Protein 1
Amino acid sequence: MVSIIIAESSLELVPKELWHHNAVTSYCRKMDKRPSEILLDNSWHFGAMKGMKNEIKRGRPDIVHFCLLEACTIPLYEEDELSVYVHTIDDLVIEVGRRVRLPKSYHRFAGLMEKLYSDGKVTADGQTLLSLSEMTFSELVDEINPDRVIGLSSDGKPSSYEEAAKACTDESCLVVGGFPKGEFEDSTRKRLDSILSVDQSPLEAHVVVARTLYEFEKTIFM
């Protein structure tokens, strides 16, 4: 089964050092939640995020939402031929269960992620839909144990979607960055067997996910 990791994803709860910032407290009053219970989102917390460490790669949980919708609504996933993982910027890992129907609405998705952070897992009818655990990217790769790990990044070797898909076997792992700007950290890069650039221009992560998985589907089903 091929795997995909949305790596270093811009998905996290509001860090403690921002809890008392006006941008955070006003949002919490509106949502009737505590700062420790909400996702960091630069749409609402831009003022609080200014100057924070690694600012350009944080506060975009919508990127994860788009990527998961692309990965979890295709035949490859529906036929249990795809395992989906989210590795976050603060070294947590979300494992997506089989045939999970994720909310199309971002507001509902954010609520689901906040529940996952609170409870550690989301279940329905005895099935674990989402689970959360502390794990580095390297530890996740060890757990998946793929035959090859292929990173997709604009600074990689020039390739195409078709060539990237053909480089995969059904035991390979694709890695796409789940952040708005920047590159993979060295700790991630050292676990990648190759890094490919599938387009001449930088593209949004969900586009790379959708097009690459479609090309891989063609090698399986067509």
Protein 2
Amino acid sequence: MQSPIFNNTVNQTQERFAAQGAQMLRVALGHGEDVLARTGSMVAFEGMAEFDGEYQTPGRQHQQWAAGEALPLMRCHGQGAVYLAHLAQHVHVLDVDHEGLTVDSSYVLALDPHLHWDVVAVESQYGIAGAGAYNLVISGRGKVALTTSGRPLVMRVSPEGYCGADADAVVAWSSSLRVQMQAQTSTSSVWRRRGNTGEGWELNFMGQGHVVVQPSELLPPTHTSFGQQIAGQFRPQQPAPGAPHGGSAWGR
């Protein structure tokens, strides 16, 4: 049997977290080093790998439920390697240090189990919990694998100038940055998108650090079980008065 498909072989590397092409992650297991991965993200494994649901305290479960920012995790352990992916999204490995990382939980693929993470609120200047109002802050020293829809843009933020991005396109940012969420609108309702521009909530970043923005305003699709339709997931938004409820996410 011959085909160019056989060029897609295992990436032989000593790195524990290693990209396996653009849309898959290989994590080496063994010597007491486990990895926490998004539930259901395993696509293949080598050796004697095992998978267990990761226990989360009732307090953390309630916090995630109340914020709508859940991070379902499984613990991968054993000897060998595990291959992780999520809906063919692009995979990126980041080293978390003293800066910390703030990220939407929908984009977390895997992380070192010794890292600490918690749910935090991104404050709106209107005092309203809108799009992207809650995120995860990951702290400590270790590796985190994120996914994006396409190749992302990484913007550097400095004290000399801040930057802004659509709240639905922002994936992650340095936790050291100061963040303000706002909706530039001239209508009486801050939920309505800006006039006829199609733009709504935005995040402004100030300080010293980085912001990761993907070329899409769609979160990863959800409800992908057999027999269910794949649909883009949006952050909760209140429809404008008189607008019909429901409808296709692709018709935004």
